[in-house]
Amino acid sequence: MNNFLDLINYAAQRPEMIRSLAGQFGLDQKQTDNVSKMLISAVAGGMLNNIQNGGLENLMGALENGQHEKLLEKAKAPGANLFNVIQEGNDILGHILGSKDVSRQVAGAVEQKTNVEAEIIKTMLPIIAAVVMGMLDQTRRKQGNSQFSGSLLNMLDMNHDGSPVDDIIRLVGSLK
What we know:
10 helices; single chain; globular; about 80% helix; mainly alpha
């Protein structure tokens, strides 16, 4: 994956994950796809903000020590019990977004854009956070730690202008 737009597209092209989430939440696939893309953008934005504020080592440590790839596989499984995925996802969100208030704001913004109930979105958000970490973990395992950490900021710089800061502003702005 070259950047977070690739990550969003990759997730959207995972029909098994979209079908699984749609079934879990009683949504159609288009609604699930739209909500997932917006939540991935919010998680990516939170990660970028975290990394910009010195959190790259923490992210790398979490990827190296966690079981994120297993959570990704579990999230894709139709009818899977997602309790552990949600629990881990909430821990991830605590690090990425900092507070439940931010998660609620994200859910409210996505609700306004999609007309999907905020309660459903609040439950989907930690699953999506776990999925994003799982996808990053897969990429890290394929590339190796040193290459992955070196390319992470480039991944976050979606328009390749040398700075990911404008990308976080655009991602967060798309939720308003």
